[in-house]
Amino acid sequence: MEVVHDVVILGSGLAGLRAAVEAARVSSDELDIAIVSRVQLMRSHSVCAEGGTAAVLHPEEGDSLELHAWDTVRGSDFLADQDVVKRFVEESPKELRQLDHWGVPWSRRPDGRMNQRPFGGHTFDRATFAEDKTGFFEMHTLYDRLQRFARITRYDECCVTSILIDNGIFQGMTVWDLTSGEFFLIRGKALVIAAGGACRMFAFTTYSLTATGDGMAMAYRAGLPLKDMEFVQFHPTGLVPSGILITEGARGEGGYLINNKGERFMEKYAPSKMETAPRDIVSRSEITEIAEGRGFSRPDGLDYVQLDLRHLGADTINERLPLIREVAIKFAFIDPIEQPIPIRPAAHYCMGGIHTDIDGATPVEGISAAGEVACVSLHGANRLGANSTAECLVWGRITGEKAARYAMAQKSLAPAPQQKVQEEERRLFEQLGHGNGSEDVFVIRTELQRMMDKNMAVYRNGPDMEVALEKVRELRTRLEHVKVIDTSRIYNTNLVALLETINLIDLAETIVLGAIARTESRGAHSRTDFPNRDDVNWGNHTLAYYIPGQEPRLDYIPAKITMWQPVERKY
Ligand SMILES: Cc1cc2nc3c(=O)[nH]c(=O)nc-3n(C[C@H](O)[C@H](O)[C@H](O)COP(=O)(O)OP(=O)(O)OC[C@H]3O[C@@H](n4cnc5c(N)ncnc54)[C@H](O)[C@@H]3O)c2cc1C
């Protein structure tokens, strides 16, 4: 079976929905648009975004586009492409006002204007928020907006298994409908990949179970390069022991980080920004406190420090951070009004992703990428909080418009790749689905996650990363001997887990290889054996190319420096 649409959008998070709305709007509802998501549309990880979305909204109070750009470039440890940053800061205020007009119930100041809170690495309060459920309200508003357009078809709970490209042109995607078991081809003129991040490669993570990097891995295997994969962000406040995010907004509202002596240890590491220093710096400070014996230990190894909100008082906590309070009570059994919250750094964001240009275009005609799956090079080596949801909106709009214009100009579709579809169906249901070895995919995935937590986290070094590389390769070999117990095509979570793990392992290899090669410390990539940034040799983006059956090929392109030369990064 095959279905045909003009524009196909892979992913229904903030980037995907924003792209869909824009494609429909630009084409005046002329184009036939498909949104494919492996979860029900509103269950995409974007609904979990808590703290805020960054934009300059109040220049009359001292904020400026230049300041937002500088904060982002400095936060990126001078690896962000500065032309991209400039475009971002100019576009994000427009996106927030647009969402305001579409109905996001922002938290407001007494005078009715949209409120903004401090966030890590920003020198001005510019995280625009709706309580501590910002992503949830933004997603609902975009979903609401989508209802105005007639020609949008949703494929919910449909898992895309491959992206098909021929001679540098997009052909279609193979899709497995998890609810009916059907396997089919979706063809289209243009594709926007908006399939989110890959943090489930780590065990202690803030991410939803479905953030398994499928979009990155499928694009990579289809021939698109991945960029800057070695940069993975660790958020300083993952709730112990679940890893659920405690938003940076909690520190933005004035929360303290304390060690087992009750000291606000950030005084030593970032005296001017304290708890609202960028995430890489705060995460390293926490790990240092724990390593030097000033943390709290746990038998399961999830040693922690504490986030103290008690001095904010019940009113502020209930009004500004109600979700945080609920989560702490339900998952750590403590009420932050009365007790400090146990936290430690948790895998939180992939700075790397599918290589795109400033318009979100990939090297393949008809395919663009937006949101966390993409690396347009806004965040460089370390993303600032609240810049990601804003990026999803800005490049969701840009790629949605681009895809629509491309589809309108295109007279015909690329030929249907029937043979590839049959091969993919066989790979899935005959080869993988009938795997009958002695390995359990869930055991392999757990081993991957534990190894990544141990060897590839906040601090890295050469020998540990070599071990990581060996382990990734061992796990890949063992994956060939997995037994899939469920043989049905309907909701076969066992086979889905196998597909996800194949993806995670391919991506883990690019992370580890890129990190071993990068003999410096920059942003989230912090090596104890190469503690300094090396601008002479490493002011470059890493590109990783897939080569079947071999190690990925790495290549490098210079970061674009258009405004500020790299200087020492101090807070
Ligand atoms: C807990 C948490 C809190 C956060 N808080 C903030 C914040 O306050 N501010 C901020 O700026 N950023 C925040 N972030 C980061 C930000 O929310 C994400 O980077 C962003 O929402 C990602 O959006 P996205 O559209 O790229 O992808 P997602 O929202 O992750 O959506 C991915 C989509 O791709 C689909 N998909 C994936 N694989 C497949 C497949 N194989 N087949 C079909 N569909 C597929 C999924 O079903 C889903 O619809 C937070 C992240 C987390 C985890």
Main traits of this protein?
571 residues; alpha/beta; Flavocytochrome C3, Chain A, domain 1; Methane Monooxygenase Hydroxylase, Chain G, domain 1; five-stranded parallel sheet; five-stranded mixed sheet; globular; binds flavin-adenine dinucleotide
Q: Can you walk through the features of this model?
A:
36% of the residues lie in helices and 17% in strands. The mean pLDDT is 97. The chain is α/β, with parallel strands linked by helices and 571 residues long. Helix 3 crosses helix 11 (387-409) and helix 14 (462-479) packs antiparallel against helix 15. Among the domains are: 241-346, Succinate dehydrogenase/fumarate reductase flavoprotein, catalytic domain (Flavocytochrome C3, Chain A, domain 1, Alpha-Beta Complex), CATH 3.90.700.10; 418-558, Fumarate reductase/succinate dehydrogenase flavoprotein-like, C-terminal domain (Methane Monooxygenase Hydroxylase, Chain G, domain 1). The chain binds flavin-adenine dinucleotide (FAD). Residues 10-16, 36-39, 44-46, 48-53, 134-135, 159-160, 194-197, 206-207, 210-211, 214-215, 245, 349, 371-373, 386-389, 392 line the site of flavin-adenine dinucleotide (FAD). The site of flavin-adenine dinucleotide (FAD) has 44 residues, from helix 1, strand 3, helix 4, strand 8 and helix 5.
Q: CATH homologous superfamily name of the domain at 418-558?
A: Fumarate reductase/succinate dehydrogenase flavoprotein-like, C-terminal domain
Secondary structural class: alpha/beta
* Named CATH topology of the domain at 418-558: Methane Monooxygenase Hydroxylase, Chain G, domain 1
Q: What's the number of helices?
A: 16
CATH architecture of the domain at 418-558: Up-down Bundle
C-alpha geometry: globular
What is the number of strand segments?
21
Low-confidence parts, pLDDT < 50 over ≥5 residues?
Answer: none
